[in-house]
Design a protein that fits this description.
single chain, alpha/beta, D-Maltodextrin-Binding Protein, domain 2, 2 domains, five-stranded mixed beta sheet, three-stranded antiparallel beta sheet, about 50% helix
């Protein structure tokens, strides 16, 4: 092989490498915080596996965090561009002068879980019962359940035996029969359903009884409005890619089998419940339809939770919902 031929081959390799690096650098970066055990982490994995990020010309830099609070700190500290949180927090921060906005991510909610043979079938059945509540006294589902119970002249805090605790601990107590009913997050509901327990009171039904016209996403993507204005194209492509990932998860049982190590389920029945509940929570309404329901529910939450929950703001802060690129 001649010297000139070798030089041409080396030049070709360098050119290909240079073009590849240029293409990589040309991709638009978005920094996302995802909880290690959360559904956004699953979706990001699907996006990577199906190269939805590359097709959208996005370099998604993921920071895995242990809690929602850690994500909020990361967003405030400008170490990430986008997190998943709730509109209550966004509204409170806007009231304090911040520029955060909210875009619906999931309407999947928890429920009051009971043993299959339990006589509890509705909120009236909780009177005098031992009720485990995940998330603490200011948990949104707990506040909404109290508001719903008041419609039946039932004060759950006074007329039931309330036990607060971490979701994993309460799930174990429920399976061991130490509580009569357990209000917990959707993923722990799925685990309990997979082990034979049933939903006595679905929080989606509670919200409808409280005036919501359809499914309401309490959790959503949260980011700064000014950042969104500067990066609207990036954000729209990111939302499009995550919607495609959601569709893959909705349509492909095989995809869930691949995600089993991330989800941490123990059997196929449990995995099937996870899939069904996840799919039920995929937002299908426009932001314009969701926002009025959120405003109505905010007033109820503010009434029950008081200043400890919402501060001095009795109404959802104007501009809380990000409207650009709304779902059709």
């Amino acid at each position: 092989m001649s010297f000139s031929t070798t030089c041409r081959q080396v030049a070709a390799v360098v050119l290909v490498a240079t073009l590849a690096n240029s293409a990589a650098y040309a991709m638009d970066r978005i920094r996302v915080a995802a909880q290690i055990t959360g559904t956004l982490d699953w979706e990001l994995e699907v996006m990577r596996a199906h190269e939805l990020d590359r097709k959208a010309n996005l370099d998604i830099e993921t920071t895995e965090l242990a809690s929602t609070e850690a994500g909020q700190i990361a967003l405030r500290g400008s170490s990430v561009d986008l997190i998943v949180s709730d509109w209550l927090w966004v509204s409170r921060e806007r009231t304090l002068g911040d520029d955060l906005v909210f875009y619906p991510y999931s309407s999947t909610l928890g429920a009051v879980m009971v043993p299959a043979s339990s006589p509890i079938k509705n909120v009236a059945g909780l009177k005098g019962r031992k009720l485990g509540v995940a998330g603490g006294p200011l948990d949104k589902s707990w506040l909404l359940l109290q508001a719903f119970a008041r419609q039946s002249s039932l004060d759950l805090k006074k007329q039931s035996d309330i036990v607060y605790g971490a979701p994993p601990l309460l799930a174990e107590k429920a399976l061991q029969g130490e509580t009569d009913a357990t209000l917990t997050f959707w993923n722990f509901c799925a685990r309990l359903e997979g082990k034979g327990m049933r939903r006595a009171i679905d929080m989606a039904d509670v919200m409808r009884h409280l005036g919501a016209s359809g499914p309401v996403a309490l959790v959503g993507y949260v980011f700064y409005g000014a950042w969104a204005e500067r990066n609207r194209g990036i954000l729209d492509r990111f939302f499009s890619a995550t919607d495609q990932a959601k569709k893959i998860l909705a349509d492909s049982p095989d995809e869930w089998q691949r995600l089993v190590p991330r989800i941490g389920v123990s059997d196929s029945a449990e995995l099937d419940v996870y899939r069904r509940r996840y799919v039920e929570g995929i937002p299908r309404r426009s932001v314009e339809d969701e926002a009025p329901d959120a405003k109505a529910l905010y007033r109820i939450l503010a009434d029950v939770g008081g200043r400890d929950l919402v501060g001095s703001a009795r109404e959802l802060a104007p501009g809380t919902f990000y409207m650009a690129g709304s779902r059709e």
